[in-house]
Amino acid sequence: MPEDSRQPRQSRGGSQAGQGRGRASDRGRGAAPGRGQGQGRGEGQGRGQGRGGSGSRPGRKDDWRRPADDQRPRSEDQARYDGPPIPEDITGKELDRSVTAQLKGLPEKLAARVARHLAAAGAVIDEDPRTAYEHTLAARARAARIAVVREACGEAAYAAGEYAEALSELRAAKRMNGVTAYLPIMADCERALGRPERALTLAKSPAVANFASEAKAEMTIVEAGARRDMGELDAALRTLENAPLTSKSRTSWVVRLRYAYADTLVAAGREADALEWFHRTEAIDGDEITDAGERAAELEKRQG
């Protein structure tokens, strides 16, 4: 397995570690200034000492007593728990009702904080997926047993290129709620981690037969990509040819299917056929979600 696929697991830990960090941070914030947890000054800790005695890092509420240049930086765990700053105009009410409904089992203030982190993540995931991921990590640290939180964390990790973490989070969400809609993303994560065989196993899951058209198309694209990863270009082409490439719909999933087919034709050395399908892709790509027009122009130039 590539090194970068292992490192995120080592640095971030699993969901239980996330929950533990959250609880520890809550305890730290609740400690009275100048006192250790469970100890009064009469038990050996004065006002100038921190939670764990004279050799421990002082509680964050004690930092105000120290000169600015002597305040210690937040630990990595504390920074992850706090998350990025949440814009003041993000209230959490931006979330869909189905999401907020899953947060109702949390204490009110905690639910509000988690909702704001999730809403903030959704607001920036397209232009700044790394910050979005950090927001979802902060939400997970507070509510790791809520399926929608793990789902959001997985999707943000995927957008940020943290494929091992995305796979772990989406597996957790699937265990919690039984939802199979994550399978295409999970399969693509397996591809990104250099495991195309596992991607194919997910693509053959019985649940895929019941997917809506868009989800089926996404899984088809991932399956064809896995075949290409394994050097099976003919199988990749057959996979795409069994999909509704000639659908009259102009929706984005048809655009992506056609583009994937044209790109695979190029890889197979069938440039004349690829040119036709790049043109057919461009014809329905009104939102320009692909560069089909540019690819067609390149092929035309190359063919003279």
UniProtKB/TrEMBL annotation:
Query: Where is composition skewed (Gly residues) in this entry?
Result: 31-56
**Which parts form a coiled-coil structure per UniProt?**
none
Q: Where is the composition biased (Basic and acidic residues)?
A: 59-80
Top-level lineage group: Bacteria
Chain positions covered by the region annotation Disordered: 1-95
**InterPro entries per the record?**
TPR-like_helical_dom_sf
Q: What is this protein called?
A: Tetratricopeptide repeat protein
The species is: Nocardioides donggukensis
